[in-house]
Amino acid sequence: MSGWDSYISTLTTASPHIERAAIVGVDGSVWARTEGDKQFAATEAELKSLVTGFNTPDQVPARGADLEQIHYVVPRADDTVIFGKKDKTGFFAAKSQQAVLIAIYKGDSAEGTEVRSAVEKLSQYLASTGY
């Protein structure tokens, strides 16, 4: 268990709606992720594409985002947060200085708001510690 695994636990316990989560470097490399029956299974190519989206966030809504072989519509993207939605599932990805936190959730707007808050808070904490 790496030290990053504790951050995954913190994130997944912050909202019961988070199904899977990961912390990746700004190069797309996986630092930690949920495992077992809730394994975060995005491919390296999907992660690199998502992470590079933070460099040109205005282009992300037009192309959407793919994670775990699911295509998400992206109604919102900026240089710190990308939000994707498909039916009653979605994801939030938040960028700190050196990492991107990704949480995939199930639920409607209220659940999404809770997940977004959890992801952004942890991302801000990591940024405040230099990550």
TrEMBL record:
Domain of life: Eukaryota
A Gene Ontology cellular-component term: cell cortex
Keyword Lyase attached: no
The entry's keywords: Actin-binding
GO molecular function, a single term: actin monomer binding
The UniProt record lists the keyword Flavoprotein: no
Family assignment from sequence similarity: Belongs to the profilin family.
Name by which UniProt lists this protein: Profilin
